[in-house]
Amino acid sequence: IRRRKLETLQVNLGYKCNQTCLHCHVNAGPNRTEMMDAETVAVVLEVLRVRGVTTLDLTGGAPELNVHFRELVQGARAMGVRVIDRCNLTILSEPGQEGLAAFLAEQRVEVTASLPCYSPANVDRQRGDGVFDRSIEGLRVLNALGYGQDDTGLVLNLVYNPQGASLPPPQGQLEEDYKRELLLHFGICFNQLFALTNMPVQRFGSTLVSKGTFSQYMALLRDAYQAANLETVMCRNMVSVDYQGDLYDCDFN
């Protein structure tokens, strides 16, 4: 793999999260305290200005829980930088986050939201009781602000993760299923679905080890290798910054 021109700065604003997901590759959760400080946020903004990076990709944990989140978004948007917020949807209804959805719309932030299934039971099994209903409510709030509709320019993409040690189904067909089911049952629309494969690290990796399925899953990943996928590997035009300001090829560090 050879690097291309740097286009995206992916920034992990910290490991604190209001959810504890089985597949989380940074082991984020409510009890984590590691968060990017103001000094490092200022460095991120300076790098955006000096290097001419066109996209700022914000992740976590729940990146919105960082007290400097809105300052960073506003600073980047003032430079004309495209901002992506990797949102878990339930953060929109957390106490203290009132007005977050409206802020994202006002700043025209692109929302990439986690929704591992359109079935309530499957989502709650992976992410916790009640997460599906709160996620649907978050999507409705975003739709009401214009997200996911072709004529607004407010982009709402969803992310699918498999439930366990399996590969995701073909993305195109899955996107059609999501759009049909979410519109039919909940009146929700969105732009695009990304189907991701779970990485066997941190919490998910530990689960595989405890169940004795780690080796089988690694074999599954190896056997599914396709050279054509190298064209769209994220780290070819991206660098990842952790909460301390250290640089990595990708957010799996």
> What proportion of the residues is helical, as a percent range?
25-40%
First-last Cα distance: 17 Å
Report the radius of gyration as a whole number of Å: 18 Å
Order of helices and strands: EHEHEHEHHEHEHHEE
Report the uncertain regions. Answer: none
With helices defined by DSSP (H or I, 4 residues minimum), what is the helix count? 8
Strand content: 5-15%
Mean pLDDT over the full residue set: 89
What structural class should be given to the helix and strand makeup?
A: alpha/beta
What characterizes the major β-sheet? 8 strands, mixed
Lateral strand order in the biggest sheet: 6-5-4-3-2-1-7-8
Give the beta-strand count. Answer: 8
Describe this structure in words.
The mean pLDDT is 89. The chain is globular, with a radius of gyration of 18 Å. The protein has an eight-stranded mixed sheet with strand order 6-5-4-3-2-1-7-8. It is α/β, with parallel strands linked by helices. It starts with 7 loop residues before the first strand and ends in a 5-residue tail after the last strand.
Structure in a nutshell:
The protein is α/β, with parallel strands linked by helices and 253 residues long.
Describe how the helices and strands are arranged.
Blueprint: E1 8-12, H1 38-51, E2 55-59, H2 69-78, E3 82-87, H3 100-106, E4 110-114, H4 120-127, H5 131-144, E5 156-160, H6 171-186, E6 192-195, H7 202-211, H8 214-223, E7 238-241, E8 247-248
Parallel strand pairs: 1-2, 1-7, 2-3, 3-4, 4-5, 5-6
Antiparallel strand pairs: 7-8
Essential attributes:
8 helices, 8-stranded mixed β-sheet, alpha/beta, 253 residues, single chain
